[in-house]
């Protein structure tokens, strides 16, 4: 079996340069800038007050974007006015040595731009008053809304119980059209599940989740009487139908 030719057999007399020194220096510089820029990320997180954030500052050499997550530096991106972007710090891979060299030449200018930005905020809140008018309580509005809803709920409870007794089904609904709106009372084992006005995308006057707004209650409360009248007519029709049945 013939062995594969080596470089000498092919006529190559070339040495491959060792990149360890370059890579080591690159990693050393990247670690140093990560530590230093990490301080900026921490200060940025305190300023923005959120779990995530970013800030771009500009220098004569380009734009720098620093991004943090919970105060920890996530990446530092240098976008020079000419040339390709360089992620000086990232969670994916170390920067290209030449890109890192160009970025670090501009890095002091980035820190100066950051310091100028922070200085521009000094005193910006000095004349802002922390004295605010007292908010008005909604207790009165809520009490009136609940008073009306309690009355509607009580009436609907009677209707649900009566229909449940008549229909003899655990689940069901009664619908009626009042002043152009579709009203639906749904019951579950004789108890009110919901009262909805306006179809599937309508307003829930009664539900198991949350109360309607006072404005919605005001809009539909007067029309609820029409819904009750529609139910009464429905019962009257049933009684008339049964009255014609001979035994």
Mean pLDDT, as a whole number? 88
User: Strand fraction band?
Assistant: 15-25%
The rough form would be described as elongated
- What composes the largest sheet? 4 strands, antiparallel
Main β-sheet, spatial strand arrangement: 1-2-3-4
What is the first-to-last residue Cα distance? 110 Å
How much helicity do the residues have? 40-55%
Element pattern in H and E: HEEEEHHEEEEH
What integer value in Å does the Rg equal?
Answer: 37 Å
Strand tally is 8
Domain count, please report it: 2
Structural class: alpha+beta
Given the structure, what is the number of helices? Answer: 4
Low-confidence stretches are none
Summarize the structure.
The protein has 247 residues and is of the alpha+beta class. 46% of the residues lie in helices and 23% in strands. The protein folds into 2 domains: 21-119, no CATH class; 139-243, no CATH class.
Structure description:
- With 247 residues, the protein is of the alpha+beta class.
- The chain folds into 2 domains: 21-119, no CATH class; 139-243, no CATH class.
- 46% of the residues lie in helices and 23% in strands.
- The strands form 2 sheets. Strands 1-2-3-4 form a 4-stranded antiparallel β-sheet.
- Strand 2 (62-69) and strand 3 form a beta hairpin.
- Helix 1 (20-48) runs parallel beside helix 2 and helix 3 packs parallel to helix 4 (214-243).
- The termini are far apart.
